[in-house]
Structures are given as structure tokens and as C-alpha cells.
Amino acid sequence: MRVLKAHTLPSLSLYGDRISNIDSTTTKEDLASHFLSKGLLFSQGERAVLFTSTDGAHKLAMVSFRDHDHFKRALTLPISDRMVEGRVLNIDEDFDGLTVLSEGTQVEIVALHGLNGHAFRSWEFPDTGFMWLRDHLPEQVPTARIMLYGYNANVIGDVSTGRLRTFAETFLERLRYVREKSSQRPLILLAHSMGGLVVKQALLTANTRADGQFNSILNSVRGVVFVGTPHRGGNGVDGAKFVANFVRAFNVDVRYDLIKSLDPGSMVLFDLTDDFRQLIAAKGIEIATLFETKKTRFVSKFLFGSSIWIVEEQSAILGATGERKVSINADHANLCKFSHAADSSLAATVQVVKEFCKDCVPTITALDHTTQPPPPEGLKYVCLSDPDKLDDSTRYPVLILGKYEYWALSHIDNRYAMTVLAYDDQKDIAGRWTKTGARYVHHIEYDEGNRQVRFVGQASHAITFGVAELKVTKSARFG
């Protein structure tokens, strides 16, 4: 796939559509000429059409039309007027499902919007048209494939258990399809507000599926960035009132008495947190939380002109071990959008994402094993300077993955096996894995395409791990 570099990307105006099923040979000029023949004009300039991804015989584009009239007319074109190079163009403004913004190959980032949101515009600053996930993040993490996920969550019933599960299962199905050729690639989920509830439910659903259909997704998730997600109610605010304020923050008018009359058991804002905390601890999933520091001013008829906290810090904090917490100088609705690339809040947000991405890509170095703690019983540090000679070297090959160092130790009885130990920054053992077939490590190899690590030892024999196998989890401590 080919995408434009981030610095060449245009701003998508309010009159933007997504066009798919475009033939791979179709150019920007071809597309503009076709719509011009139908009396429809794109915005001024060369950047009104952005091809965001190609996949074999077809590609997708985001376009901005000259004005609202042209924008709406494009959406109602009959099939006969949407034929280009023998293909019927699909034109939509909803951005439902997954939309690819950049095509890195080492890690995947998926962004989910919140209640009454839009896959693209929820992340776009309306006054400047700056959309940081497209206009800034790709150049900051060029190794990432960045995708938007859109879903229709616009009514109060959408915070009920049934609807949330439906959103979650649909998200998993669509993500599994898109990741069919990259199922082992590490995954970072970025979720604003209610999007965080969808993420929590999706991972819990994946974990409980008896057929293991979504195991590749669950096992690939390295981190979740929650942006103003309500994990529990506000201080001193009963559940129904909290939900009402939460929904109204997105200009969805709803009466408090109607929410209060709903079955309390159907409300899920506060039901997922404990199970989710246990899941991420078991799977070794990192968590970062971004929370608002400004009250939200209402424009709805029920609370017009008033300003209140929607998701206070104590509600936004999941309470996970090692959770990273970042305050953002914005109200709830604007937590996920920034006016320009130099915004300090954007810098803090991007830094969190970059750290997660860095944690996903292994690096290989050499360290002095004499500074390491004594090996566990039955193991010893042995590394060879030459795979064909028994000459010990103090420069020990070490794999760095996230916050852990991975050392391949041999066995005292000299069997053909190695035990890989993951040490944390306190030099404590966080994970342990043993495989037979090689001894006395000489060097480490990383196969990026297959996401595999080879610990190569004497006579070039090796043991191989998928990177996902080396994920530090509770069970890995006893491997």
C-alpha cells in the first residue's frame, strides 16, 4: 500500500466524504474530472483529494467538496453516475468501520470515538481542520498503521449492556478481517469517552469466546489509551444523573427521569472495570489515561449555559498497576482534538502513544552479564564469542522489548535447551520461558516480517519465539 507523507496531507473540511472501491489506476485528476462532469466541484487546491490506502486492485480516498450543496449532492448520485474505470464508487460521510490513515508495518493503532461521535471529525479541530491522527501522528510514529473506527452510537440506549456488546463484537469482527494478513502485529487501542467502554467490552468478549476466534487480537494488544473514559461514577453523583450529564455532553438531549427509569442492571458504565482490570493484569496490557481539567459548558436545552465536570479524574482513572496518567487542558468533548501541531496537550498525548509503540518493537544489544543478579537454580550465564568454539564472552546478547530485558541462560547440566528470563528495571524476574534445541547463546536475530525472535547458540542451533510468546503476563512468571 502507498500513502502520502504526513506533511503533504490536506485538511478535510466539513464537506468531506470517504470514497472507496476506487480502481488502483485512478488518479486524483481522474476523480476530480469525473465529479466535475456531474457538476460537482472539490475544494480549491491540489490537496482536495487524499488517497489514504490501496489494497491490490482498489484504493480509498477522502475528499472535500467545495460547499455543503456539492457535498450532499455527491452522496445522492445514482449508481450510473458513480461508475469510474468499470467500478461503482462507494461514497459515504459516516466513515463506518475501519479507515486507514497511514501504512506502517510494525505496529497498529486503532482510534475509537465516543458517544454521538464521528470516526474522523471527533478527532478534528473544527476551526483549523487539523486532524492530528492524520496530519501529525504518522510522522511521529512512521512504523504504525493508523486506523479510525466508526460506529453508530447516538442514543441513550447505546450505553446499555446489549448495545455495548453488539458494538464490541462488530468491532472485533471488522478488526479481525482487516488484520488477516497482520494478525501477529502488536496493537494499540486509542479510545475517547464511550469508545473506551467498547474497548473494555471487546477485550472481555475476546477473552471469553470459547472458539478463540479473537485470540489473535487479544494477544496482540500491547496498550490501551483511554481518553476521558468513565470507569466509575462521579463523586457524589448517582448513576442515572451521571449518565444523563455524560450523554448531554455530546449534545444528545435526554431526560434524567427517563434514564432513572431504565433497568439499573442494563447500565454498564460501572460494570466492566473490575473484570477488565483482572484481564489486563493477566495479559500484560499497559494502560494510559488522559483526563480533562476543564468543565464542559452545555448547549442543550436541558442544561443550557451551565458548566460541570463530565468525567472527573477519579472517574477517568482505571486504577491499573503501572497506569500512566496525563492531564489534558480541555473539556470532555475536546480531549481528543487539538488546534495545531505545537499544542502542548498534543505533545503529551503523542508521547504516550510513541512510548507504547516503542515498547512494541524489539531491539537487540549486548550487555555485561557480570552486572546481572545470580542466575536461578539450575541455570548459568553462558554466551559464546564464536558459535563453533567454547570461548565465553562477557558481552552478552540481550533482547530489549518494552521495559524488559530478555536474557537467554543455559542449564548447568549442559542439556540442549535455553531458558529465557525477562528482567524488569529492578532486576527482578518478570517472565520465564524454556525451549529445547540449542544451548550457549551466541547472538539474537529478529525477523520483523514474521515477528519472531531467534536465540542462536552453539553450532548455530537456535530456539525461536514469536514476539507475542514473550509477552510478560502472570502465567509467564511461572513458565
UniProtKB/TrEMBL annotation:
> Which superkingdom, per the lineage?
Eukaryota
Read off the Gene3D superfamilies from this record: alpha/beta hydrolase
Instruction: Give start-end ranges for the coiled-coil region(s).
Output: none
Q: Which SUPFAM superfamilies match?
A: alpha/beta-Hydrolases, RNA-binding domain, RBD
* Molecular functions per Gene Ontology: nucleic acid binding
Q: Where is the DUF676 domain?
A: 109-237
The record's listing under CDD domains reads:
RRM_SF
The UniProt similarity line reads:
Belongs to the putative lipase ROG1 family.
The name this protein goes by in its record:
DUF676 domain-containing protein
Source organism of the structure: Pleurotus eryngii (Boletus of the steppes)
Q: Show the taxonomic lineage.
A: Eukaryota, Fungi, Dikarya, Basidiomycota, Agaricomycotina
